[in-house]
Amino acid sequence: MAPGRVGYTVQPGKFRRRIWHYSIAGRDLEREIAPLIQDQKIGLMVWGALAWGLLSGKYRRDGGDGGEGRRAQLDYPPVDRERAWACIDEMRAIGDAHGVSVARVAIAWLLSKPYVSTIVVGAKSLEQLDDNLAAMALELDADELARLDAVSALPPEYPGWAVDLMNKTRLPQPGQGPGGLGDRLRQSAADNGGSAPC
């Protein structure tokens, strides 16, 4: 690997894979990087699949987990904690239905993504390693994947949320006839004795 190219495998003229943080609690790369990876047929090597243990199921919301492990020492990588706890709750329910760990469900979710080619795990014991590797045999069904995608969805980001809002309010929705934002502003102005701003 060439100096300064950490995480890349370079072949003349084309990157073949890239290593990035990605987990069910850290889906930020889905905004721009994942579409690029798919378009350019680049493999994604994932690190932080369990968010330094947070997604293993050993930590608790109330902090009653004994404060052990890497995550207790350094809150890294940063994740939206409330969304992460909601993911853990859903993964625990799915894991219980399959008789497997939360960690195994988290890794199986990653393996369901078409752009994920490799997952780097950071197991401390053979038991953890065996559990992580067993995720390859766990097949989540469409309903389970949809539940996990919904609970871990990224919040809308500007300008996407603004476009969605304008599309919902600018023009009448199918079957609704008049009543878009412009119509409501004009009606509001008329009701208050003024003129519409548009």
Structure description:
By secondary structure, this protein is of the alpha/beta class. Helices cover 41% and strands 11% of the residues. The protein has 8 helices and 4 strands; from the N terminus they run ββαβαααβαααα. A hairpin with a 2-residue loop joins β1 and β2.
Spell out the blueprint of helices and strands:
Layout: E1 8-11, E2 14-21, H1 33-40, E3 43-47, H2 70-73, H3 81-98, H4 102-111, E4 116-119, H5 126-134, H6 142-151, H7 160-170, H8 181-191
Parallel strand pairs: 2-3, 3-4
Antiparallel strand pairs: 1-2
Task: Report the radius of gyration as a whole number of Å.
Answer: 22 Å
The largest β sheet comes out as:
4 strands, mixed
Distance between the termini: 59 Å
Chain-averaged pLDDT: 83
The geometry reads as globular
Tally of separate helices: 8
Cross-sheet strand order for the largest sheet: 1-2-3-4
Structural class call reads alpha/beta
DSSP strand count: 4
